[in-house]
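Why predict the complex rather than its parts? Because the way molecules touch one another can change local conformation, and only a joint prediction can capture that. The input here totals 397 residues.
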Amino acid sequence: MEDKLYLIKEGEISLKGGNRNLFEKQLRHNIKNKLRPYHSDITKQKGRLYARIPGDVPDDLIRKALSTTSGITGFARAYPAAKDIEAMKAKAAEILPLSDFPEGGTFRITVKREDKTFPMNSHEVACTLADTVFSLYPGMSVDLRNPQHTLTCEIRNDVYLYTSEEKGESGLPYATAGKGMLLLSGGIDSPVAGYMMAKRGMKLDAIYFHAYPYTSELALEKVKKLASIIAPYLGGLRLFVVPFTEGQVYIRDHGYEEESTLMFRAAMMQTAERIARAEDAKAIVTGEALSQVASQTLDAMSFTDSMTELLVLRPLVGMDKEDITEKARRIGSYETSILPYEDCCVVFSPRHPVTHPVKAVARKHFEELGMQGIIDEAVRNTEVFSFDPMGREICGE
Ligand code: ATP
Ligand code: MG
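Output of the joint prediction:
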């Protein structure tokens, strides 16, 4: 079976002067990694990447791989033709019946003539290819502004034709901007937070605090499912599941009830920092948004920030729930996030949580709790699950 060829348009990375090579190299690596175990060959030509993929790889899989890889603005299955107008016409006649052109309606021909030595100009090539369309589908008409179908012909070192370009994620290739630890709960917000940071080039692993049996095994399954859903956007991830029942119960029994959420969050930060440092991560990422719940006031967030020396990033801080929900739907995490298994914060929530803690007081109370031993134990008993760049769980790790 013949290889499939995909033309890939790079996004923002084409702007990054000195770093450009590094970004491009990472993007190629990210694409190759997604298409494993298939052997794909990715080459580059001025502003374009070309992925040669074995013919037996299903189109759906390729589309999922490319549409979730940040740093790509668009991609299309492309067909090479010889650099000769007769060959280009023949190739157009061959691929149009495979496209959505047979549906009829309006179309345009877009010609990108990068190779200025080609004897015909763009307009002439466009008119010639339009004639090919008319000969096959006489009922169609041209609409340059708002066409229903587009046939693009790029004349560069080689000639490629394609009909259906799909939009990519844009952003920057993940794993070009250092590593972070995502605090992943079963809610709507944190998967979106991870997605957003990955799109800015961050490499992420995730941490989930599990309070079994107060939170059921189903809650853990739900978080694992969320990890697998966001994995393609993150280029794969490891999920650290921290058993935190003892910590929760200890806080409930030894702290002030109205401060329990704050104390839990402080313990979470310190535990996350321990795991982050061991994994060489420089930041903690959360799904908090200003004033969404009691622990997300400026005072509360400022307190939890002070419990770790790592940078705490909250990409959703200025977003409202509607915008977050829309993103969650788009990346496909929403339906899983709204499944009803409670996360541990809900089970242990105080009736009247402190919303405006005085930082020094809350810090003192946390210190008095003396949770270091419990945190050590939790870190020791942490279990790790791994997900590959297509979201499949990797067993036996
Ligand atoms: P989410 O929708 O992401 O669960 P939320 O609105 O329910 O967020 P909180 O429960 O207060 O808000 O949690 C705020 C953030 O703290 C979450 O977005 C997540 O990053 C982190 N977090 C909360 N609970 C856990 C947990 N059990 N394990 C890991 N991280 C958690
Ligand atoms: Mg939550």
